[in-house]
Amino acid sequence: MVTVMGAPGIGKSRLAREVAALAAERGVDVYWTFCESHACDVSFGVVARLLRAASGATDLDGQAARAQLRATVPPNINQQDLLLLDDLLGIADPAIPLPQIDPDARRRRLTDLVNTTSLARTTPALFVIEDAHWIDAVSESMVADFLTVIPRTPSLVLITYRPEYQGMLTRLPGGQSIPLASLTDSDTAALLDELLGSDPSVGDLAPVIAERSAGNPFFTEEMVRELVQRGALSGERGSYVCSTGIAELSVPATVQAAIAARIDRLDPGARQTLNAASVIGARFEADLLGALGIQPQIEELLHTELIDQVRFTRNAEYAFHHPLIRAVAYESQLKADRAEWHRRLAVAIESTSTVTAEQNAALIAEHLQAAGDLPAAYTWHMRAGAWSANLDAGAARVSWERAIHIADLLPADEPDHLARRIAPRTMLCAISWQAIQETRGLYEELRELCTAAGDKVSLAIGMTGLETELMFAAQTGEGSRLASEQMALLASIDDPAPTIGLAFIAFNNWFDAGEFGEILRWSQTVIELADGDPAKGAEFGFGSPLAAALAWRGVAGWWLGRPGWRQDVDAAYLARQSDPTSQAMIACWTYGLAVTYGALRPDDVTLNKITAALESAGGSSNAALSIVRYGLAAALLRRDTEADRDRGLELMMHVHDMWTSEPIPFLIPVAELWVAWERARRGDPDAAIPVMRHTVDELHKAGRPFFGVLASGMLVETLIERGADGDRAEAHAAIDQLENLHAHEDWAMREITLLRLRMLMTKAEGDVVAHRHLANRYRSMAESLGFEGHIAWAETVIADSDGRILSETVIEDS
C-alpha cells in the first residue's frame, strides 16, 4: 500500500497514470476510482465506484452487472450477502427483497465478502484511489476495512491526496508514503525545454514561466497551453516559436488566471459544455450533458486538453484534465447560471438514473442546495437520511446534519419552520451516542425547540441518544434520572406506542444503577399497554418491546426476590421477535444475566438457548452481538468442565476487544472481571486480584451496584481461596462494604450473595458449626427464591462439608 501526497498540480495523477501504464504493460489488472470535491458529503460514492471497477461492472447495468459481479467472487459466497453488495453498487434487482438486517451487520458482512474475495485473488492487481482528500467519510471507513487484507494478496494500492488530508487512509499499517515536492529550478528548466523547444524566440520566455509556476509542473504546462491557445506560441509541443517579444507578452500571474483565459477563448458552445460539465463533476457522460438541455460540443475541449475521454463506449465518459480546470470553470460562472445548471441536474438525476431516487437523494439534495432551492434540498436530505439509516449510521448522520444546516437558514415565517428544525435534530439525537459532549449540545437545542413547539414525542425520542451515551460512558446515575424524565414525559402523551417502544433504553440505565423499582413499575406499564402484541411500538427501533419488558421485569423479579420471575424470563424468550437484534439482546437479558448471578443454572438447555440467539445474531448490531456473546461467555465460565471454561475465557476476551473497539466502556470492567476471575481459578490469583480489586472500586465509586455485587462476590471468593496474609481481612472488609451497598433496599440477590460469602468465610476460618448453619440457610434461601444456580452451589458446598465431616469422623474412630 502506497500513498502519494502533494500539492495540486505537483504530479500525483501523472505518477498514478505512469504506474498504471507500467502495471498494464506487465499484465497487471488495473482498477481506478476517484474522489470529487462536490461529493464529499455523498456517502458510499467512492467505495461503490471502486468495487464496481474491481468487479468489472463499471460499464454494465442491471442483470449484466450482477452476472459480472458473481463471476468475480468465490463460489461459496453467501447469496444473501451478494444481494447486499448489489445494493451498495447500485445494481440490485428491484424484484428481490434485501435482507432485513442491522446496519452494523450489513457492514460486517460486506467487509467479510469483499475481503474474502480479495484473499481469493491469485492474479496481481493495482488499485488506484485518486484525490482521497475528497473521499466521503463512509467510503473512507469501508475502504480502510477492505485494505486490512491487502498485504496478504498480490495487490498494490496507490492512494493520492493533498497535504491537508489527515484521514485514516494516510495511516495504513505497513503502508509506504511518498511525498512529492516542487520541481527544482533545473527540473523546471528541463520541463520547459521539453515543452517549448530550443528556438531562440522562446529563450527569454522560459525563465518568466518558471518563476510564475514556482516548480509546479501542471502550472508550467497550463501557462504554455494558454500561450498556445492565445496564439502567442505557434508550432508543436517541443518546437514552439514565439512571435511576440517578451516585453510585449503578458504571462498569466497564476495558474487559475491561465486556465480562466483558456476557457474564455473557447467557442460559446464549447464553453457552455465545459460550464455544464463542471457542475456535474470531475467526470461526466455525454448523455447526461444532453439531459441538461444542451448540445454538447466536445471536440474543442479535447483538442485544448481541458478534458480527456476516459471511456470509449456508446455513452462516452469524459474527465477534466485536472481538478483545477473544473474548479476554475465552475467558479467563473455567474451564480445565477450555475444555480440553473444545478437545478437542471437535480431533475435529470431523478428522472434518468438507473437506481432509485432514494439512492441518489443525497446527491440530488446537494444540487438543489447549490441551486438555492433550500426547502426542496431539505426534503431530499431528510429522504437521504431515512434511506441511509438502514445502511450506515454515519451516512444518515451526514444527511441529517445537512438538513439541520438548511432548516436553520430558512426564514422563521416559513411553513413548518419549527418542525423542520426539530425533525433532523430528533434523528441525530436518537443515534448520536458516541460523542457525549456533541450529543448534549444538540439535545439542548432540541429541548428548546420542542418546548417552543410543544412537541413532546420528538423530545422523548431525542433523549434516547443521550441516555444511551450516558449508559455507555458508565454515567448511569445521570442516565437513570434522564430515563425517568423521559418516561414521565411519555406518560403525558396520549399515544402509547412511544412509551412501549422507547422504554428498553430506560431499563438498561436503571438496571446498572440499581433502580429496580423503576424497572418493575415501567415494565408492568409497557406489558399492559402492549396488550399481548409483541410488535407494538417496534417502529421506535426495538423489534419486540413486549419481550424487552418481560425480560426486564424478570431481571427485577429475581434481583428483588419476587415470585413469577421465572415465568417472565421464559415468556420473554418466547415473545421475542424474529429480528436478530431483539433475539440477541433478550437472550442475554433473560438467560445470560440470570446465569451470571446464579438465578439459573448454566445447563445444556439454557446454553442452547443462548447459543441459538448467537447463531442468529449475524444480522444484529455490533452492540447486540457483543452482548449475546457476553451472555454465552458468562454461562460457559459458570460451567464445570475445562473445555467449557476454555471456550468461555476465549469468548470473554473477544467480547472485551469488541467493547474496547465499539466502544462500550461501561462494560469493559465487567469483561476484565470475568477474565481475572477465571485466571485466578487457573492458578494465578496474584495477577487476578489487583484487577478484581480495581473493578470493585470502580463500580462502587460510579454507583453501579448491579455489577458491583457480582464483582464484590468474585473478589471475596478469590481472596478466600488464595488465603495469603491479609486476604481474610480484606475479604471481611469487602463483605462489609457489600452489606452497606444500598442497605435500605430489599435486594434478595445482594442478601443471598452475602450469605454465600459469609458461609465461605466460616469454612476458611474453620468454624464448622457456623459453616454448616450458614450452608443450610443458604440452601433454604436459594430454594425459596427458586435460584437454581445457587441451589446447585449450595448442594455442592454441603456435600463437600458432609464428606469432610465423615472423613474426619472415620479418622477419629480409627
Automatic annotation (TrEMBL):
One of its GO terms (cellular component) is cytoplasm. The keyword ATP-binding applies. It holds the Pfam family AAA_16. The keyword Kinase does not apply. Keywords: ATP-binding, Nucleotide-binding. InterPro entries: AAA_16, P-loop_NTPase. Coiled coil: none annotated. One of its GO terms (molecular function) is adenylate cyclase activity. It comes from the Bacteria. Residues 2-159 form the Orc1-like AAA ATPase domain. SUPFAM superfamilies: P-loop containing nucleoside triphosphate hydrolases (SSF52540). This is Orc1-like AAA ATPase domain-containing protein. It comes from Mycobacterium gordonae. The lineage of its organism: Bacteria, Bacillati, Actinomycetota, Actinomycetes, Mycobacteriales.
